[in-house]
Amino acid sequence: MLFKEEDVRGILASRINFEEYGYYCNYNLGSSDWIKFWKEERSRCLNGYGYNGLRVTGDYYFYLNYCRLTRAILDSNGEYIESGEGFADFRDSDYEFYWHREIQRYGMEKTLERHGLNSEDDIGLYLEMMEECKKGGLNMEVGKARQTGWSYKMAGIAANNYYHRRNSRTVFMGFDDTYILLLFEKFRVMKSFVDANTPWNHRNDFKNRWSDYYIRASKKVYHNNGSVTEGGYKSEVVGVTFGGDYINAARGLTFYDGIIDESGAFGLPGNLISVCTILDNSLRAGKYKTGMLTILGTSGDLTKSSYDLSTIHASPLTYGFMGVYDKWNPNNEGKIEGLFFPRHWGWLGFYDKAGNSDLAAAMEYELSIREKMKKNGASATLLRKRMQEDPLNSAEAFGVVGDNMFPTIGISNRLQILNKDKLHEKRGNAVTLYRGNGNVNVRLLPDFNNCIMGLYDNHDNINGEVIIYEMPNQLLGRNYYKIGYDPVRQSKGSSLASILVFKPQSTEVYDGDKIVAEFIGRREDLDDIDEIFGMLCDLYNSEGMYENECPGTLAYFTKIGRLDILASQPDDVIGRSIKNSKVKRIYGCHIPSKLKESGVRYINNWLRREWGFDEEGVAIYNYDRLLSKRLAEELCSFDMNKGNFDHVSALIMVMIQLENSDILDARRDRSNSSNEDIKKSINVLKKLYANYR
User: Fold this and answer.
1) Are 294 and 260 contacting, i.e. CB atoms less than 8 angstroms apart?
2) Which of 603, 601, 675 is nearest to 632 (CA)?
3) What gap in Å lies between CA 93 and CA 111, rounded to an integer?
4) N or C: which end of the chain has fewer CB within 10 A?
5) DSSP code, position 204
6) What's the whole-number average pLDDT of the chain?
7) What is the pLDDT of residues 153-187, one digit of tens each?
8) What are the DSSP calls for 474-529, one per residue?
9) CA 196 → CA 16, 189, 191, 200, 364, distances in Å?
């Protein structure tokens, strides 16, 4: 929808009056016109308001007209003067957000009825909502750029509920006090302004504890019999932290609006998804939804739980959140994701006085900043951080900042495709391997549920199963496939055993450079996992490299007389990474920090390698062909210094084998070349000697 300045000014009439005269209402205090004015304003804050065909929701009306915030102050020419206190500008991006909230609160049909609109076209949304989401009743997830004023919008929603919705509860939630304090402080500033400039102020006789994050609009009512009861609106704003026993803190928590800001900083992986699941259950009474949860994630400031956030964003309906079609990434046409507000939408300096964004100019400006950074020698990490703090699409936003050298943006984009299209389930077959007639046989498992274990999935059964993406090519020679194995030391614990089977690229094999089978899980008897490793080695006619700091694997294959399954220690790779290494274990490979760094570098090179080109000539990289969801998740979240990344460890085993083979091949080439030179020299000497004789 293209907004007109005169229509926007009609929506902002009350606040324009305040800016010009210092007050909202021109009528005498207590007069019928004064009462009528404030009743109308309250109705607008609750039910929305329209002017000349432009209509906004109640929350947006309150935010625009009654919420003061710290912002950039501009002169009449639109030039920056200073930071100061003022009202928010009307912006098309905010208009979208508040309408999507309204539709999830009431459903499309009731929303149109409430606002006296005939069709969706009367709202004119830019983001296209999934048809099934138009029924409403879903929560909202918002991915966004930094420094875009979202905490003010959340505080404004809380303030509107507090003043105008009887018995409502708004809950600010965060992993610790840091995030709640920021929201409460903004709410406090808005409350002070409204109390001073409107007749809506409420007493707080019973709950007025800012330090405890608990404000309740109620007053003492004295009765003739001497008793005192609580009266008034009884609306409240509360803060809840989840840093301790987050499950119990979330269980049974109800609210009209629940808001989690900085949801990417939510402690350990899995916390955010668990809390959202519990809260969604608490907000339902039979088929009815009694409240709405809104979670926000600021890219560029995300910790381990950022993966929870990106998972929700990539598959919103799975977790009870509203989904829209991705408008921002041309590679994701038709893809469903949560709400996303990129840097160039509603960016100060790139929208007109009516709030219409110039998306093309804003994008060009952001790209020019990145280009200038490149020319001035910015590192890849610094550029990646810029892309995440000022993203142009969700794929840029949810790449992980830090010491992770992998192409996380590309991998994250691939992971979103995997989650959307379920490619890992369509292309992968869960199987049981068993030995019979001297061969390894494969039996498909009819039930595929929970066979692929995501990094942060909660699984009661962690046995895991072998997943085969491509059966072995029997024409390939012995040891063509490379198999990596990261075993576990004990039958109990959080670490899982990981096995990856890799098909290299060569002149004989076109469709290589990929993972063709995997296993992730834990068995009560560790010999069972070793046997799975052995059967995969036999199935793919290759020896396998295992992490030999776990002695049980060597003991198992010694016991059954199958040491031929274990690859020899890769002395050439070890010698290249570690000078004067004294470790001699014959089979497998140990991974000290220096060799781990080399292995991670090998993985990075493989991921970034061009595999080919699509029909339009666009490069296809190896990360674009990943089918292992678990591996993609680990690569996105990888931290060199902490955490269990079992599939990455197995992949390091694979890459060490590939690197060792390359070293040996290069040595053979040099050896063959040297032998030929020696033969030629000998022949010359023979001729000279013959002539001499």
Assistant:
1) yes
2) 603
3) 19
4) C
5) B
6) 86
7) 999 999 999 999 999 999 999 877 887 899 999 99
8) TTS-TT-SEEEEE--SSSSSS--EEEEEEE---SS-SS-SEEEEEEEE--SSHHHH
9) 17, 11, 8, 9, 43
- The 8-class DSSP code of residue 51 comes to E
R_g over Cα of the chain:
32
SS3 call for 264: coil
Q: What is the pTM of this model?
A: 0.68
* C-alpha separations of 425 from 422, 461, 582, 639 in Å: 5, 18, 44, 27
Cα angle vertex 269, ends 412, 180, to 5°? 105
Question: How many degrees, rounded to 5, is the angle at CA 17 between CA 15 and CA 19?
Answer: 70
Pairing of β 257-260 and β 292-298: parallel
Residue 88 structure tokens = 């928010």
Could you give the CA distance from residue 371 to residue 384 in angstroms, rounded to a whole number? Answer: 12
> How confident is the model over 566-601, as pLDDT tens digits?
999 888 777 665 555 555 558 998 888 888 888 898
Torsions phi, psi for 621 (to 5 deg)? -95, 165
Distance in angstroms (rounded) separating the CA atoms of residues 328 and 506: 37
Residue 115 · residue 109 · CB < 8 Å: no
- Would you tell me how many other CB atoms lie within 10 Å of the CB of residue 641? 7
Q: Which residues contact 179 (CB under 8 A, 6 or more apart)?
A: 172, 261, 262, 265
Q: How far apart are CA 343 and CA 144, in angstroms?
A: 8
Place of tokens 């406090």: 188
Residue type at position 666 = A
Residue with token string 């902490």: 642
Q: Is 328 exposed, middle or buried (0-12, 13-18, 19+ CB in 10 A)?
A: buried
> Residue 592 gets which letter from DSSP?
-
What is the C-alpha to C-alpha distance for residues 231 and 221, in angstroms, rounded to an integer? Answer: 6
> Are residues 296 and 264 in contact, defined by beta-carbon separation less than 8 angstroms?
no
Q: With a cut of 70, which residues of the chain have pLDDT below it?
A: 243-247, 267-270, 299-307, 331, 380-381, 399-404, 446-461, 491, 493-494, 575-585, 662-693
Q: Which tokens sit at 316?
A: 């919103």
